[in-house]
Amino acid sequence: MKTLRFFGALLLLGALHTYSWAQSSGGSPQIAGVENSAQVKTTVRNLASELQQAKAPLTAINPQQWYDVKGAPGTYITQWHQAQTEVDSCVRALSHFSNNTGDLAEAMDVYFRLEMLDTTLRSLADGAARYADANSAGQLSAVAAHNFNARERLRDYLRELATSVQQDYKLADAEAQRCRAMISREPANTKRSKN
Question: Engineered SS bond to 100: which of 26, 30, 45, 104, CB 3.0-4.6 Å?
Fold first, then answer.
């Protein structure tokens, strides 16, 4: 019985080690229903490239001038600086995530950064429409709209990855419970070996 208990625990530890190694080494075992790593990397690279193009419409607007000349709220100045920083942060986060597409925390970080950038770009587009010109507003809105499909694919992948990780933990927990039940059913050994 001790041998059975030992090998059961060893099997469970091996399975958990293999899973954690695959996650930490950047590999994610292909799981049914989850987009494969190559597809995700392509989506992420395309999105990073598209975000680089967002810099031009951002540098073309001047919220400080809106504030000084037309009395626009100072919030647009803050958002403008924030959007420029967010574009660079998103590109870095996407690059890091493309090397480790199985990491749920990184996937969530990327997604929420992209959502924040989208909100900021849309607000700046509204400001440009009101205090600048329709062309600038249209360019900012186009950047936000253009990234929408890639963000939706990333959101779907995030949902699939979260479900997959949750299922893996449930399986590991069920196996641990099964091993504990086997161990607890084993009769206590009352004889001690003499050395």
Answer: 26
